[in-house]
Specification:
The chain is 39% helix and 13% strand. The N and C termini lie far apart (62 Å). It contains 13 helices and seven strands. By secondary structure, the chain is an alpha/beta fold. The radius of gyration is 19 Å and the shape is globular. The model has no long low-confidence stretch (mean pLDDT 94). The protein has a seven-stranded mixed β-sheet with strand order 1-7-6-5-4-2-3, with helices on both faces. Bound molecules: pyridoxal-5'-phosphate. Residues 36, 97-99, 123, 168, 172, 200, 202, 231, 233, 239, 242, 244 line the site of pyridoxal-5'-phosphate. Pyridoxal-5'-phosphate is lined by residues 36, 97-99, 123, 168, 172, 200, 202, 231, 233, 239, 242, 244.
Length: 293
């Protein structure tokens, strides 16, 4: 009897570099700088809140878009930090991590043959996420030594098939950040086009030298075409909890939720109850860039 043959959708993809480096670090008992493993404790108050949340019985599915009280607190935070008017009911979805939010946003938009601009070096999920959707990554190197974006190259790379630009500020792995100069160029590149933006902002609070985080949330004309992805794991040093969220205008978020609802449906509930209290403590994230130095 013939046995089924699997034709890989990702023939060139191996095990992620993060897993490989972590395995080598464990084998050689080396200090592991290859993956996001903070070597300081997370806040015990947040652990206590999660514990209490479980004891209180918050252990069943929450709404597929995420706990509304958490989304409301996040909308307040985004209004406060970025002067953004985000509707908690229709424009925020809580996800099992930032990577999931990124994958879902790409899958929501991309069709086979679409081109997506990715700046390299890049977080390693972007390219496979694009390829698995049948789309084509268009790779643009960040300019050494500042790892800034060469906007002339971006302009030259735009074609009628360009569907999306992936941004990541602060950037992993280089640490470079977008400036107001970049925002002006981005605006002029996407103006009067159908190009979407995927903005990976999981390190929004790991920003130093009193630089301002240039979130897409600050700019209404950019936000109208953006999926903006965040991770609680990065902000509160609990990467293993895998909880994050995506922010997008309602028409985009409606489609995002169609993909999300039959993939994971709803995210870890006790942590969402705990975070809906904890995110109100501004000092927990505003001091981050300062305390980690
Ligand atoms: C740039 C970037 N985006 C997204 C993520 C993923 O975040 P999460 O663990 O919430 O999926 C990471 C994790 O290392 C990252 O470095």
């Amino acid at each position: 009897m013939a046995s089924p043959t699997i034709h890989s959708k990702l023939p060139k993809v191996g095990t992620t570099i993060f897993t490989q480096m972590s395995m080598l670090a464990a084998e050689y008992k080396a200090i592991n700088l290859g993956q996001g493993f903070p070597d300081f404790m997370m806040n015990p108050d947040l652990i206590a809140l999660v514990n209490k949340s479980m004891q209180d019985g918050n252990n069943q599915y929450v709404h597929m878009n995420g706990l509304l009280s958490l989304r409301e607190r996040l909308a307040e935070k985004m209004a406060d930090l970025y002067d953004a008017n985000i509707h908690p009911d229709s424009e925020i979805t809580i996800t099992p991590g930032g990577t999931y939010a990124i994958y879902t946003a790409l899958t929501t938009v991309l069709r086979p043959g679409d081109e997506v601009i990715v700046f390299e070096p890049a977080y390693d999920s972007y390219i496979p996420n694009i390829i698995i959707n049948g789309a084509i990554p268009v790779l643009i190197p960040l300019s050494f030594p500042s790892y800034s974006i060469n906007w002339q190259l971006v302009k030259e790379s735009i074609t009628s098939k360009t569907k999306m630009i992936v941004l990541n500020s602060p950037n992993n792995p280089t640490g470079s950040v977008l400036s107001s100069y970049d925002i002006e160029h981005l605006r002029s590149v996407v103006k009067n086009t159908g190009i979407f933006i995927l903005s990976d902002e999981v390190y929004e609070h790991l920003i130093f030298d009193d630089l301002r985080h240039e979130s897409m949330l600050r700019y209404a004309d950019l936000l109208e075409r953006s999926f903006v992805c965040f991770s609680f794991g990065k902000t509160y040093h609990c990467t293993g909890w895998k909880l994050g969220y995506c922010v997008a205008p309602q028409p985009l978020m409606n489609e995002f939720r169609k993909v999300h609802q039959f993939n994971c449906f709803s995210s870890h509930s006790p942590v969402q109850f705990a975070l809906s209290e904890f995110v109100q403590q501004k000092e927990q994230y505003l001091q981050l860039g300062k305390t980690i130095q």
